[in-house]
Write a structure and sequence with these properties.
heterodimer, A: 497 residues, mainly alpha, two-stranded antiparallel ribbon, 2 strands, B: 104 residues, 4 helices, 70% helix, 0% strand, elongated
């Protein structure tokens, strides 16, 4: 058991990757699922083990192959990313439990081994993105996660051939984004000679802030990551990808994939390039913030005009990513706190919504549109009610976790005296009511009367776990707020004005 | 770099897009490797006499990146094959026209 403790940081990432290779060629549809579930339980256990190690000894630096950083690759595990890691790991476990029925109905049973193999590949690489302390290693994880998610999205082709086009577009746009990131890494490396993030901070502090090469590198890296995390004008790959993927895949990615990259994005801004603050402040104030506000409006308004519900939710995701980047663009500790809180809360909300819609999709074997769910409120009362909880949370009604995020976001905006933005956010929240109301209207207020049918516990149990945690974290938000506070105070050495 | 990017943006054919992507990525790799060159540097091999040698690290990094690039191209070509099986064409315009037709 000793190696389990010593090498726990590596195991968190490596374990899903190894198991994914094992289950890739299993012909049956049950075993890959069971093995993935066991793996993810062990994975969660190791994450908790790591958490207790971090609580005892503080920051853990794990050097691969005992190569000292800055030469070797290192993982840096502190209170923040292990917290995120545990949240991710638990959510992945719930989604994997849910995914079985969806995969059975949406993809060919023989492909299920491959699907879970890709699934674990994506999970492992997303964990890597959270834990790594090396900017080139991040690129590798970014690409593993991109390639596995593209393949997973393409699996939706059994239901609708447009999934192939969505996957192809994601491949091209994602690869451009990743290559931009590599150009940025090249510039940064040519100036500093290091790839390790902690070392990079030290090396960068030696240069005068007028170094154009570093500025160029920084810009390339940030733009590359913005493509990958679907920040507004670079978001075009996301809506088709999420809406044509198998529902379980949309659930996993809507909840986690862009969030992991956003976390790294924030680390890059507030941890690594802090000495380039006058560039960064221009970037945050004149690029990221206006784009975020536009994203919130464009995303919400396009969502209102969507008929296909998965597309509606995908556009709403663009708006929600806008909220997160708006919070991060504030250059203020309270803003970063709000951003982290929303990362967590939005993962729960969007995950729950996609789960519920996924169930409607497999029970009707068709695209879920506003007209096709008429009367489903009576037909599937348990699922619909959970959907309602997630939806009111998305809008930000008190007693749900969506309210907590909105509260902290408003608070942060208020501290920064951005009153116009407060007004704009309030309006956009009101607009979000419109699109969600359309769903509620078709669910409960249509003329079609139907009898309730017995629902599948394999679907509604994970869904209700999410719905109940939405309410629990809406009332007892302290642990999440504390984690977010710790994250922001750690990151925020403070960009000076 | 720009040439590759231009091909990706302007071409309507999916295979050409992948070729553009490959050119774009390869040129970035060449840029990266060129960072390693040190004037009068030799290959980074352990020698009896001390010598100036080129930085081996970018080469190693690009080795990884090449693998990633190959995987990306392979997956892209596999997708194009599936698209061709489903639509009988790999021209973006024709596919869009067909999608519009099927929506009506």
């Amino acid at each position: 058991m000793n190696f389990l403790i010593d090498d726990a940081p590596a195991l968190v990432v490596v374990l899903p990757l190894i198991v994914s290779a094992i289950i890739a060629f299993m012909p049956s549809s049950r075993w890959p699922w069971i093995i993935s579930m066991i793996t993810l339980v062990v994975h969660l256990f190791i994450s908790f083990e790591l958490l207790s190690m971090v609580q005892i000894s503080g920051v853990i630096l794990y050097e691969f192959g005992n190569w000292q950083p800055p030469w070797g690759i290192a993982f840096k595990i502190d209170g923040i990313n292990i917290g995120l890691q545990i949240i991710f790991s638990s959510f992945v476990l719930i989604t994997t439990f849910y995914s079985r029925k969806i995969f059975l109905s949406e993809i060919h049973p023989e492909d299920s081994g491959k699907a879970y193999s890709l699934w674990l590949l994506a999970v492992g690489s997303l964990n890597g993105i959270i834990l790594t302390n090396d900017i080139f290693n991040l690129f590798v994880f970014l690409e593993i996660s991109a390639l596995s998610s593209i393949s997973l999205i393409a699996l939706g082709a059994g239901m609708n051939r447009k999934a192939l086009l969505a996957a192809f577009n994601y491949l091209i746009i994602g690869a451009i984004g990743a290559t931009f990131y590599v150009i940025g890494v090249g510039f940064a490396y040519s100036m500093t000679g290091t790839l390790n993030m902690s070392d990079l901070v030290i090396q960068l502090s030696q240069y005068s802030t007028g170094q154009l090469a570093i500025f160029a590198g920084m810009s390339f890296m940030l733009i590359g990551l913005m493509v990958k995390s679907a920040v507004f004008p670079l978001h075009l790959w996301l809506p088709p990808a999420y809406s044509y993927a198998p529902s379980a895949v949309s659930t996993l990615f809507a909840a986690l994939a862009t969030k992991a990259i956003l976390y790294f994005f924030v680390r890059l801004i507030y941890e690594v390039f802090t000495f380039y603050d006058h560039y960064l402040i221009i970037f945050l104030d004149y690029v990221l913030m206006p784009l975020s506000v536009t994203a919130i409006f464009v995303g919400t308004i396009i969502a209102i005009y969507q008929d296909d519900i998965k597309k509606l939710l995908a556009y709403s995701s663009i708006a929600q990513i806008g909220y997160i980047t708006l919070a991060f663009s504030m250059n203020d500790q309270s803003g970063i706190t709000a951003g982290f809180i929303h990362i967590f809360n939005h993962a729960l909300i969007k995950g729950g919504l996609f789960m519920a819609i996924g169930y409607f999709a497999i029970s009707s074997q068709d695209r879920v549109t506003l007209s096709s769910i008429n009367g489903y409120g009576q037909k599937y009362p348990i699922t619909s009610f959970a959907l309602l909880i997630c939806g009111v949370s998305l809008i930000g009604i008190p007693l749900t976790n969506g309210f907590v995020s909105k509260l902290y976001l408003f608070q942060a905006l208020y501290y920064n005296h951005m009153f116009i933005t407060i007004a704009l956010i309030a309006i956009s929240s009101a607009l979000a009511v419109i699109y969600f109301w359309k769903i509620v209207e078709s669910l409960w207020f249509s003329s079609i009367k139907t009898e309730a049918v017995s629902e599948d516990p394999a679907i509604y149990i994970p869904l209700w776990i999410v719905a109940i945690s939405i309410i629990i974290f809406g009332i007892f938000s302290a642990p999440i707020v504390e984690l977010a506070n710790m994250a922001s105070s750690n990151l925020f050495g403070g960009l000076s004005n | 770099m720009v040439g590759g990017l231009f091909i990706i943006i302007t071409s309507q054919n999916y295979i050409k897009k992948i070729v553009g992507l490959a050119i774009f990525q390869t040129s970035v790799f060449v840029f990266f490797v060129s960072l390693a060159k040190i004037i009068d540097g030799t290959a980074p091999i352990l020698m009896k006499v001390e010598a100036i040698y080129s930085n081996p690290l970018p080469h190693v990094l690009i080795l990884t990146a090449i693998v990633v690039g190959v995987a990306t191209s392979a997956l892209g070509l596999a997708l194009v094959l599936q698209i061709y099986k489903n639509y009988n064409t790999i021209e973006e315009k024709e596919i869009e026209a067909e999608e519009l037709k099927s929506e009506r």
